[in-house]
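Colleagues,

For the teaching module next term, I've prepared a clean inverse folding example: a structure given as tokens, and then the sequence designed for it. I'd like students to try predicting residues themselves before seeing the answer, so please don't circulate the second half yet.
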């Protein structure tokens, strides 16, 4: 790298994201992002799958998109078979597009539907990555209230009516109905039906993100929104959480009108999603999906319990509300209003702790300053215990909470 730097920085386009700081490695207590459990990465089985599929199909890598622009056919066949189970989707390989992570699916839907000045409805607490993308696109984001079962449909009806009275029809409602990020709720069937009736009445499409839906604690869950009304819904999913985020593989399910347009948009974005990743995942998951996901969910559930115990022991009554997730990898918490978690980020980082501050996961950042999200998938149980204790110490030093005496009383009882 030259010390003088690039001579034409003044030519950089306006409205770029803030420059990325140099990467300094991962923190010791890493409770951020959507990382997975390293001990649950089936590396030996994946190596065998890679060897088998390369010996069988490897020469096909000579072509761009050798099974067409929608992705490796056996992986699309696997998605069709998987979608026919709990999501209850009846579709064909022509309705499936493999994407470079489900984040690309979000970009594609945004490209398909959004223009600056448009309005979209999201769940009041939602995936930070989706919020970042939308803010950069210059669309109006409206938060719809959630409760412990996900979207509150009566409240959503009021939001839609209010927008309607101002002459605004939202371009979509983005929802994570099965293992909501960050609250971990599951939208019950009756609410799904009411959501679809409501959105049909208001003529607003539903954008369903099933990133975590395969990771419910008992493997069950209501049918997907797409299965209940395919004309009304675009559906995306991911292999990041069920297998490995570094693979960068996701998928979309949509009917022909939407699909043909998505394929055209993706062609402009890239020259196809990496075929080797798709081949390995198809080879491995077509044999082992149920067993792998069952074992992973069990591990995640145990880690959640470890984290909940640690949070209760270390933070005691300073946690005003804890959303106990029904699956997935996150714990969403609320501390008292006087704790501004954004002020904890730097001191926590100095103590080797990373967490997700609530405002980044909220449509209304100003009212979510005392919320935070902890990911329990990556750290071991010992690291979870140590890290939560270290985080409580930082929080106490910065805010006086959790009150140490209250915690001592509480841990003495345990
Ligand atoms: C709800 C949700 N959707 C989509 C994504 C994007 O994931 P990926 O691009 O790894 O599939 C994430 C990542 O954490 C997420 O939480």
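(Answer key — instructors only)
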């Amino acid at each position: 790298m030259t010390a003088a730097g690039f001579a034409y920085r003044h030519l950089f386009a306006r409205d770029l994201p803030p420059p990325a700081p140099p990467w300094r490695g991962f923190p010791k207590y890493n409770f951020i992002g959507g990382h997975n459990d390293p001990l649950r990465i089936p590396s030996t089985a994946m190596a065998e799958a890679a060897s088998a599929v390369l010996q069988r199909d490897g020469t096909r890598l000579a072509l761009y998109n050798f099974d067409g622009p929608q992705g490796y056919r056996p992986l699309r066949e696997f998605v069709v078979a998987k979608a026919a189970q709990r999501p209850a989707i009846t579709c064909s390989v022509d309705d499936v597009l493999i994407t470079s992570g489900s984040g690309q699916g979000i970009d594609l839907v945004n490209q398909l539907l959004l223009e600056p000045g448009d309005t979209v409805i999201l769940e009041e607490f939602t995936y930070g990555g989706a919020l970042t993308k939308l803010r950069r696109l210059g669309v109006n984001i409206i938060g719809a209230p959630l409760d412990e079962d996900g979207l509150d449909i009566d409240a959503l009806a009021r939001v839609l009516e209010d927008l309607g009275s101002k002459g605004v029809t939202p371009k979509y409602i983005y929802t994570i109905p099965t293992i909501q990020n960050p609250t971990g709720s599951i939208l019950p069937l009756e609410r799904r039906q009411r959501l679809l009736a409501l959105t049909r009445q208001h003529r607003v499409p539903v954008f369903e993100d099933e990133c975590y839906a395969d990771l419910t604690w008992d493997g069950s869950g209501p049918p997907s929104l797409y299965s209940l009304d395919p004309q009304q819904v675009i559906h995306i999913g991911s292999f990041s959480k069920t297998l490995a985020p570094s693979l960068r593989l996701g998928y979309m399910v949509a009917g022909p009108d939407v699909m043909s347009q998505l394929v055209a948009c993706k062609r402009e974005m890239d020259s196809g999603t990496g075929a080797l990743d798709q081949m390995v995942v198809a080879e491995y998951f077509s044999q082992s999906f149920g067993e792998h996901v069952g074992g992973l969910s069990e591990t995640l559930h145990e880690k959640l319990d470890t984290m909940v115990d640690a949070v209760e022991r270390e933070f005691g009554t300073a946690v005003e509300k804890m959303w106990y997730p029904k699956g997935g990898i996150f714990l969403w918490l609320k501390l008292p209003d006087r704790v501004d978690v954004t002020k904890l980020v730097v001191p926590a980082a100095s103590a080797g702790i990373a967490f997700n501050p609530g405002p980044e996961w909220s449509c209304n950042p100003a009212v979510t300053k005392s919320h935070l999200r902890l990911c329990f998938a990556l750290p071991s149980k010992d690291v979870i215990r140590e890290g939560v204790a270290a985080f409580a110490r930082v929080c106490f030093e910065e805010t006086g909470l959790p009150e140490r005496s209250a915690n001592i009383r509480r841990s003495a009882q345990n």
